[in-house]
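User: ok so my PI wants both of these folded by tonight, can you help

Assistant: No problem, let's get them done. Here's the first:
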Amino acid sequence: MPIGISMNLPPEILQFVGSLLAILLLAWLAHALRLGGKPALDSEAAIRRAADEAVDGYEPTAWSVDMSGKSAIMCDANGRLLLLRQHGNKLAGRILGPDATARIAPSTLRIDSGERRFGSVELKLDDAQAWAEAVNALGSHSNA
């Protein structure tokens, strides 16, 4: 009789261990390829790229990025306001219309896009008052 340990594992355990190893291998591969990173609005180039990806041809002339770098509000030469927010590992954006509203809480600007699916975004900005006025002015133009 040979010396050794006889392992008689149920097939479910072997399947579980094999699946776990495959998942860990895929997670390592995604990390090694730098897939699924977080978007960052940390430079003018990144802001312009994100704006163009959200709305084709959008060229911001003024912008303000949230202190976390995960959201921003910007204006183009035509006066259109674009609101960007993090959505998973991408950035989603909407041109704000007359239904958009803004209000200032003690340390944040809260913008309701007026679209139920996009929702509202909270931004910590140094120039929150100016952006709140610009957003709220969108609604007054539609009533004129």
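One down. Here's the second:
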Amino acid sequence: MNIEEHGGIVSFDEEWAQARSAAAARQQAVAETRLNSVPVERSGGGGAADYKVTSPDLKAIGNEAQELFHWFERDAFHAGAKTDVAAKSLDADGFQTGSALWTVWDTWCSQAETLLSACAHIHNHLEDTVITHANHEEILATNFSISLIDKHFN
């Protein structure tokens, strides 16, 4: 910042506003990183687009994954008791489809558990990403303000 432009004296509020503006501009530049350093073409347009994801975007995706987890956890296994009755009945009547029904049920349960695990992983990872980013921002802001204060006392 050029102090002479402001008559030699700059208030803390002015300096702080400039510092925040510069930090926001740097953060915007970092956030707009090009995917694989290659411009991404927008459909219908000829210009390059930057890939940008914000914390609210990540949080929304994480919340959708959590919602899917709860919905699927509630609804995926309700047929278990009826499958058991049907399989036992088919076995008792001498049909081989009773054991086949159990095989299908076991496969379904395994795949459902995999989906539930993936949803939980996505939610937890994105939630941690948002929290970690916010914590890093706070640390950067704190370190930046301390360095400015230290600069004035040295």
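Residues 23 and 29 are 10 Å apart (CA to CA). Confidence is low (pLDDT under 50) at residues 33-47. Good luck tonight!
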